[in-house]
Amino acid sequence: MGKTMTNRFLALKRRNFLGLALGATTLLAPLPALPATEAMAKTQIWDPKARKWVNYDSKKARQYYMRNKMQAPEAFRKQVVTFRTAEKPGTIIIDGNQHYLYLVQPDRQAIRYGIGVGRDGFGWAGIVRVGRMSEQWPTWTPPAEMVARDEKARKWANGMPGGPDNPLGAFALYLYEGDRDTIYRIHGTPEPWTIGLDVSSGCIRMRNEDIIDLHSRVQVGAKVIVLMQGAALYKGV
């Protein structure tokens, strides 16, 4: 099988898997298909002026953010979309490849938010739940694994006070498997230009205004489904 055909096959396989896992989830207006050679590559965004997909890396993301009144690309801003799924309202579904978090709503709708996800080697997939939610501006305590590998995190081994520069941002949802903390979070960020990128150590990051909105709509115990191509499987999807 040639390289182009392989890429097309992998892209199609992923779409089929996503549809089955979400109960044949569909959006009101499907995004234009990525070129086959880019379908499994880095983040891309649609350039309406050039009418083509363009690569979107950390440098371009920061430039875009500064150039557009501190806004992420429109695709990564909060919006209501048509969304068909067998999951009940209040469920969170995360498509890590497309950098979207969906909060399922009644009547075949969902609120869609842009997210940043785990960089190479830190992606994961699974079914977990919201075990608890923080008060505003939570303390960040890096896990032991991060302290061991990251000199910057070592400084905050006993906890970094909450505030605008704290990695957890305005709020955090703590993801549990049963009664056990997985160490993964859905949280805000002091780096809003990173939304749409693979940047974290496995947590799901959102703009502060988006995590505030999500926090106000979600209940402790909410089901969270995380889908990500090529990720380590945390717990069965």
Automatic annotation (TrEMBL):
Pfam families to which the protein is assigned, alphabetical: YkuD
Alphabetic keyword roster: Cell shape, Cell wall biogenesis/degradation, Glycosyltransferase, Hydrolase, Peptidoglycan synthesis, Signal, Transferase
Signal peptide extent: 1-35
* 4Fe-4S found in the keyword field: no
Q: Which GO terms fall under biological process for this protein?
A: cell wall organization; peptidoglycan-protein cross-linking; regulation of cell shape
Task: Read off the InterPro entries from this record.
Answer: LD-transpeptidase, LD_TPept_cat_dom, TAT_signal, Transpep_catalytic_dom
Q: In which pathway is this protein known to take part?
A: Cell wall biogenesis; peptidoglycan biosynthesis
What GO terms fall under cellular component here?
A: extracellular region
Listed GO molecular functions?
glycosyltransferase activity; peptidoglycan L,D-transpeptidase activity
PROSITE patterns in alphabetical order? LD_TPASE, TAT
Q: Where is the active site?
A: H187 (proton donor/acceptor), C203 (nucleophile)
The L,D-TPase catalytic domain covers: 90-227
Report the sequence similarity comment from the record: Belongs to the YkuD family.
The record ties this protein, via PANTHER family, to: L,D-TRANSPEPTIDASE, L,D-TRANSPEPTIDASE ERFK_SRFK-RELATED
What is the official name of this protein in its record?
Answer: L,D-transpeptidase
Give the source species: Rhizobium setariae
